[in-house]
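[step 3/7] inverse_fold.run input=structure_tokens len=397
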């Protein structure tokens, strides 16, 4: 419970900051005078710095402990949150989002590190899923409530309020997080950053996990965090608040999905079938969006809600990867996997912005541009699932 009290408020804000841009896309793009490609870069900045920070974060968790790691990084993130709310140019906003990404980078990993070091292995998937499910309140806050607040007070004052909450969460984490005993390898020594990374990359099953780790969460985060509101506005003509409600529906099903996956993992004790079936279903969902997304507004909302529920396999996939790491590499191992999650999201966010800009530049309307993007998402998800099926479910003895 101490882990939840210390880190859950910060994680809620971390989830918020990776998903909020879609809902205030209109005023942000107008105020900063940017187009789809630059908007994609703005979204990607958070993910790029978050991903790059995973390697020093993993080393710091194993060597320094989560308390100092979280406190130092979140202080940087709080400064970035205030900078974003006051940014007057696109590049200052990109810098600010990058700083927020650094601040968020150790939050979830610290919780997983503490779960892995202090709880039985069989509880890891369940605790992770519950933590993610509760953290998904940030997804909900970044949907209709954010749209209403931005409409009532303006996006800048609203984001100043979230920056103040980020600062408070930083103080709370610094006060409550406690470090577990330091773990060592069989020789009684701690591996350095490079030696630990070398040990991790030689774990063969991780390379079969890599494609789905790079693509599954990335596509879900990009659909919810960047494009659902522009899709609903440009294809179905919804205003900002109504598009925010569509985003809220997807956020609710993502939250429900995290709890459902956790319950299924607890009941079955298995990770691989849940991830495989869930990711394949998400790929089919995006294929249906490509085929039918422009025909019905309610049908589109329903399909986004379905992919939100089926696609949120993040915690279960992380639990699958966890079984391959020895205790002394838990911090670096899980942050390496999280690097793949977030690096994939950075690439997909940046690439999707470029893709939409190219599609519109070629004369395709919004419906066709988004349909083509959804076809790409579907293909990536189904291909990565096929590779994932080759992964062993448990560590060889």
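[step 3/7] decode complete -> sequence:
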């Amino acid at each position: 419970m101490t882990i939840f009290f210390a880190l859950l408020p910060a994680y809620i804000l971390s989830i918020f900051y990776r998903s909020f841009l879609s809902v205030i896309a209109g005023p942000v793009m107008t105020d900063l005078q940017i187009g789809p490609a630059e908007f994609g870069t703005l979204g990607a900045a958070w993910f790029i710095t978050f991903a790059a920070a995973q390697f020093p974060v993993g080393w710091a968790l194993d060597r320094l402990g989560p308390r100092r790691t979280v406190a130092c990084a979140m202080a940087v993130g709080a400064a970035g949150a205030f900078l974003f709310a006051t940014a007057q140019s696109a590049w200052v906003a990109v810098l600010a989002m990058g700083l927020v990404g650094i601040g968020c980078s150790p939050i979830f990993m610290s919780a997983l590190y503490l779960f892995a070091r202090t709880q039985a292995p069989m509880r890891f998937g369940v605790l992770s899923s519950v933590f993610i499910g509760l953290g998904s309140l940030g997804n909900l806050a970044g949907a209709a409530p954010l749209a209403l607040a931005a409409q009532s007070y303006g996006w800048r004052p609203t984001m100043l309020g979230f920056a103040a909450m980020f600062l408070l969460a930083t103080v709370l984490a610094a006060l409550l997080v406690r470090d577990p005993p330091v773990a060592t390898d069989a020789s009684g020594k701690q591996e350095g950053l490079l030696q630990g990374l070398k040990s991790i990359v030689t774990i063969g099953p991780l390379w079969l996990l890599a494609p789905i780790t790079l693509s599954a969460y990335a596509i879900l985060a990009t659909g919810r965090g960047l494009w659902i509101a522009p899709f609903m506005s440009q294809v179905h003509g919804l205003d900002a608040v109504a598009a925010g409600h569509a985003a809220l529906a997807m956020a609710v099903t993502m939250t429900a999905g995290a709890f459902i996956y956790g319950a299924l993992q607890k009941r079955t004790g298995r990770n691989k079938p849940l991830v495989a079936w869930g990711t394949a279903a998400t790929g089919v969902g995006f294929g249906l969006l490509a085929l039918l997304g422009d025909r019905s507004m309610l049908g589109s909302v329903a399909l986004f809600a379905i992919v939100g529920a089926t696609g949120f396999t993040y915690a279960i996939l992380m639990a699958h990867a966890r079984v391959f790491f020895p205790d002394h590499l838990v911090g670096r191992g899980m942050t390496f996997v999280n690097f793949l999650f977030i690096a994939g999201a950075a690439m997909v966010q940046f690439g999707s912005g470029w893709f939409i800009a190219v599609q519109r530049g070629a004369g395709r309307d919004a419906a066709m541009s988004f349909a083509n993007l959804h076809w790409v998402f579907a293909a990536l998800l189904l291909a990565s699932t096929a590779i994932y099926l080759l992964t062993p479910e448990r560590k060889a003895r």
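[step 4/7] annotate
The chain has a mean pLDDT of 87.
The chain has one domain: 2-179+193-388.
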